[in-house]
Amino acid sequence: MEKTNETAVSEFVFLGFSSLLGIQRLLFVMFLLLYLFTLATNAVILSTILLDRALHTPMYFFLAVLSCSETCYTFVIVPKMLVDLLSQKKIISFVGCAIQMFTFLFLGCSHSFLLAAMGYDRYVAICNPLRYTVLMSPGVCLCLVAMACACGFTVSIIITSLVFHLPFHSSNQLLHFFCDISPVLKLASYHTHLSQMVIFMLCALVLVIPLLLILVSYFHIIFAILQFPSSVGRYKAFSTCASHLIVVTVHYGCASFIYLRPKTNYASSQDTLISVSYTILTPLFNPMIYSLRNKEFKAALRRVIGRTFFPHNNE
To answer: What are the b/e assignments for 31-57, b being 16+ CB within 10 Å?
Structure first.
């Protein structure tokens, strides 16, 4: 019989900020303020969309789902990271690490497909405005969100299962501040080329398929806008798509850099920096890009504030 006395890893130690020991308290304060501001911003966006009937449209429905997704995404990673910044032992259990990886992958993958659904919404609004209310009915919107979540769930459960069925017997020193795919894979005692290829292909498909759908939508949108006789009409149409394009660029830029690079180019310090922006700054700026630069949303926000805090002025 072969010897199997190697002790399996039961917990992981995060070393993502180990080189910044002198400023960890400063990072804690900075990240806490950003996190609280993110929660407050998303709370304002969600409550405004819920309370103002003028925003009960498909575009703002998707924005509300996006805002909720961004809030959940930060909740999976940031609170644990904040605790670790003040702790001597920055540990997470094996099961806790698997749960964290599954949850953030589920939200991240769903986010990719949700952006594709938002691109389709803009395509219908600009290219087929007379049938917009039929093609983007509440049932269709719910179906698109459900499909995005189903795709995210399927991909995340497969990747998490593949990663955590690998043997972990050697080091438990995780060169990151949360359980991301590449840092955890590096700790596995061994992994087959097939499992690594499957994980890479799934990550690629989650990014490439929604991106192709978005590009097809915008190909038709641009062609339709160029047919508009008025330059003012063209400007208004492009402006409704600008926020979505900015968010898509940031999302796919960061995600592609982290998940689609050859593993020989893996640099933990570089990935930690990108991941900080991806998990803290992006969830803060995405809803702001969509909402706070939007005249319709700002008018609705003023109405909600007026009705809530100055009800007598609206009588």
So the answer is: beebbeebbebbebbbebbeebeebeb
